[in-house]
Amino acid sequence: MRRLNKLIQSPAYQASLAKTAAMEKERVYCKHGFDHLLAVARIAYAYLLERKNTDYPREIVYAAALLHDLGRWVEYQSGEDHASAGARLAEPLLQAGGFDGRESALIVTAIKEHRRKGEKDVSPLGEALALADDWSRECRDCGAQNTCHKFSPTMLELWY
């Protein structure tokens, strides 16, 4: 997990988290800080293991999850989809972190796909991120349920 530590300690990664946090300071819905990213990593990895999918080592799953919302601040600033922006921002971080070209391609693809849940051409890692992104939310205790586009009452049945 040395490469993950290098990735999350990088100034560019920390700057992206800080920019997102600043832009979400007044947000009433789920925020996209490190706690969310780590929850997505854990859930995505467990999801893949439960499906006996061993094509993605833990470090690859965690890297994809920890980077999947990297472009949130870009979306807030410019309106560009955060999945596309995040994939673009992730590439140099992955290279600097020591991930090879094949690993980086898997991770970047999953980041691009993490908003495409249920579509046929999504990779297993992209699907795992999409599901984990939803499942990581603590909707049961949220005061913004009635205005959140992510919330539905049946969602609670799946999670709790």
TrEMBL record:
NCBIfam families xrefs: HDIG
Domain HD: 33-138
One Pfam family of this chain: HD
Domain of life according to the entry: Bacteria
Organism of origin: Acididesulfobacillus acetoxydans
Protein name: HD/PDEase domain protein
